[in-house]
């Protein structure tokens, strides 16, 4: 008869915590995927309102850019930001709806994450025309090189 070696008590706890973290990550990601129809539109409206407020994203240039996006642009930005947040097991609504207010340092960190993401999107949009020209010229040079 062989005796099995008992697991140390912390080994079971470690496995349970990992399982809980995996479940939480899946829950946040599923929440973003579940957003559709009315819920999605409501988050877009709430984010748009929150982002352009002085205490929203904070930066005046970024707030003006978001205010000028139009409905489709705002929806695209909100969807992309919500997915980005979900990748880090965050729900964008937590920030927009003030659920992080009782944890100021966490709220600052999540606000910073959202701000930097929005700045990256703005930079991509601002550079779009120049990037299109670069890509056309690069393709043209590539075709020239291939033809010779």
What would you call the shape? Answer: extended
Number of strands: 0
Low-confidence stretches: none
Number of distinct helices: 7
Mean pLDDT: 84
How do the helices and strands follow one another from N- to C-terminus?
Answer: HHHHHHH
Protein structure class: mainly alpha
* Proportion of strand residues: under 5%
N-to-C span:
79 Å
Biggest beta sheet summary:
none
- Helix content, binned percent: over 70%
Q: What is Rg?
A: 22 Å
Describe the structure.
With 148 residues, this protein is mostly helical. The chain has helices at 9-34, 37-52, 60-67, 70-87, 92-96, 104-126, 128-147. Helix 1 (9-34) packs antiparallel against helix 4 (70-87), helix 2 (37-52) packs across helix 4 (70-87) and helix 4 (70-87) packs across helix 6 (104-126). The longest helix is centred in the N-terminal third of the chain and has 26 residues, at 9-34. It is extended, with a radius of gyration of 22 Å. The chain starts with 8 loop residues before the first helix and ends with a helix.
Topology diagram in text:
Blueprint lengths: L8 H26 L2 H16 L7 H8 L2 H18 L4 H5 L7 H23 L1 H20 L1
Helix pairs in contact: 1-4, 2-4, 4-6
Short summary of the structure?
It is built from 7 helices and no strands.
Features:
mainly alpha, extended, 148 residues, 0% strand
């Amino acid at each position: 008869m062989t005796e099995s070696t008992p697991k140390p008590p912390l080994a079971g706890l470690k496995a349970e915590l990992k399982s809980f973290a995996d479940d939480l990550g899946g829950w946040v990601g599923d929440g973003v995927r579940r957003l559709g129809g009315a819920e999605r539109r409501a988050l877009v409206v709430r984010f748009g309102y929150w982002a352009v407020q002085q205490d929203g994203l904070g930066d005046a240039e970024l707030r003006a850019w978001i205010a000028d996006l139009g409905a489709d642009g705002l929806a695209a930005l909100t969807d992309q930001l919500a997915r980005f947040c979900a990748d880090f097991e965050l729900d964008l609504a937590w920030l927009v709806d003030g659920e992080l207010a009782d944890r100021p340092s966490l709220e600052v960190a999540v606000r910073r994450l959202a701000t930097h993401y929005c700045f990256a999107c703005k930079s991509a949009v601002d550079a779009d025309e120049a990037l299109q020209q670069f890509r056309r010229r690069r393709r043209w040079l590539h075709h020239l090189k291939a033809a010779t």
